[in-house]
Design goal:
This is ribose-phosphate diphosphokinase. The protein is an alpha/beta fold and 429 residues long. The protein has 2 domains: 1-219 and 377-398, Rossmann fold (3-Layer(aba) Sandwich); 220-376 and 400-408, Rossmann fold (3-Layer(aba) Sandwich). It has 12 helices and 14 strands. The longest helix has 30 residues, at 18-47. It is globular, with a radius of gyration of 24 Å.
């Protein structure tokens, strides 16, 4: 396998995931171009050859690795091929769905990038107009794509799912399905070798796999880069608050990194009352362990669904004297009327900013809000894909504490310092 070009690599975009996948592919191609630039500079000096001579040697290696007999003149400069695999998705009048692989994938290591939580209107063959697809619609498209790729002779299949479907159905109290585990068994049965996801709701889901590998990425570094533009990391009045006991470890991670105190909101619930929504909840009282008076509050959570309990938590913190509230979330779903509810809360001064990633597709309605800031995680996924494709370790990308600590320490020492690219962050080095 060539370490210079992505031979035998193919990337497929699921319906509604074309933009996210396009950005991932763009980063993949840039990473290879950067790799060649650094490599050529070193090899020219090491072997005493010109850049043109090196390019001829590289082209020869590429031609030997090519699946087709090369034709035409030698290239005048290094280029990275497009790794995108075209797929035709069809939805029939009776609701059945099909995926048809247009480009050959035999012998390729295929990565299927799919945002199965995308609820915005999507156009596929068989539909006159774009229409929203449910999670279950997306899953059927995903399963048919996997099977089509497998039957077409792909060497391996990896799913890149920024949001793991049914992640909140990972435990049961009675006669109910463990749907998160069931999805894992489906994927293994279809021949999936690896799943890459972002901030999965519960790490217990990993125990559902017997053969497939689950790689759980974290968006903390990307969101902290956005946060750095909003606040001073050296501010002594900064405090990290966990919105509930279930998010303590996540917020402890930020508190330790920022060297700031950690506070916790504890909700007492009356379980004889069934929670229906944010206005009709079984929360009896909220207690705060810590002090937020006159402080800038940073809260972190894995997702925002309807956001009702988060708004309740932020209101409680404002009542207790919080000066400013910033919330960090990896998966900003904003289901139902969540955008309208947060917009109203923002106008009341309940919070200041929410930082969420682009792992979940969002429309202009949210992206144009003053209070919402989007962090880009497409490069993170691109780096993981390139490392996995070349058999390199992805541990530095799974455990990003070293990069985060450098970012925070340099910011606290000099808040005006630019964010520097770490050499260790290279996908090959």
């Amino acid at each position: 396998m060539s370490i210079i070009k992505p031979h035998k690599l193919g990337v497929i975009a699921g319906p509604g995931s074309e933009y996210f996948t396009g950005r991932v592919v763009k980063h993949i191609r840039r990473l290879y171009l950067d790799r060649y630039s650094r490599l050529s500079e070193a090899l020219v000096k090491r072997h005493g050859m010109s850049e043109d001579e090196l390019l001829k040697e590289v082209t020869l290696i590429d031609d030997l690795n090519a699946r087709k007999i090369p034709a035409g003149k030698l290239p005048g400069q290094f280029y990275c091929p497009d790794v995108t695999i075209n797929v035709k998705y069809t939805r029939f009048a009776n609701g059945e769905e099909k995926a048809e692989i247009i480009d050959p994938v035999r012998g390729l290591h295929v990565y299927i990038v799919y945002d199965v939580s995308n609820s915005f209107p999507i156009k596929v063959a068989g539909l006159d107009e774009p229409r929203p697809l449910s999670v279950n619609d997306h899953l059927m498209f995903l399963f048919t794509t996997i099977d089509a790729v497998r039957l077409a002779g792909a060497e391996s299949i990896t799913l890149v799912l920024p949001t793991y479907p049914y992640a909140r159905q990972h435990k049961k109290a009675g006669r109910e399905a463990l749907t998160a585990s069931m999805f894992a068994r489906f994927c293994e049965e279809l021949g999936v070798s690896r799943i890459i996801t972002l901030d999965i709701h519960s790490r217990e889901i990993e125990n559902s796999f017997s053969k497939c590998h689950l790689e759980n990425l974290h968006a903390s570094y990307q969101t902290l880069i956005c946060l750095r533009k909003l606040i001073d990391f050296s501010d002594p009045d900064l405090v990290v608050v966990s919105p509930d006991t279930g998010a303590v470890n996540r917020n402890k991670f930020y508190a330790q990194g920022l060297h700031r105190p950690l506070a916790v909101l504890y909700k007492e619930r009356d379980y004889s009352v069934v929670s229906r929504d944010a206005k009709n909840t079984n929360i009896k009282s909220i207690n705060l362990l810590g002090d937020v008076s006159g402080k800038t509050v940073l809260m972190a959570d894995d997702m925002i669904a309807t956001g009702g309990t988060l708004i309740i938590a932020m209101r409680e913190l404002m009542k207790r004297g919080a000066k400013k509230i910033i919330c960090i979330v990896s998966l900003p779903f904003f289901n139902g009327s969540a955008i309208e509810n947060f917009d109203a809360a923002y106008k009341e001064g309940v919070f200041w900013r929410i930082i969420g990633t682009n792992a979940v597709f969002q429309g202009k309605e949210l992206l144009e809000k003053e209070w919402f800031i989007q962090a880009d995680v497409t490069e993170l996924f691109a780096r993981v894909i390139t490392r996995l494709h070349h058999g390199r370790s992805i541990s530095p990308l799974l455990d990003n504490r070293k990069f985060i600590q450098k970012l925070i320490d340099s910011s606290q020492a000099n808040p005006a310092a630019p964010v520097l690219k770490e050499k260790e962050d290279s996908f090959m080095d």
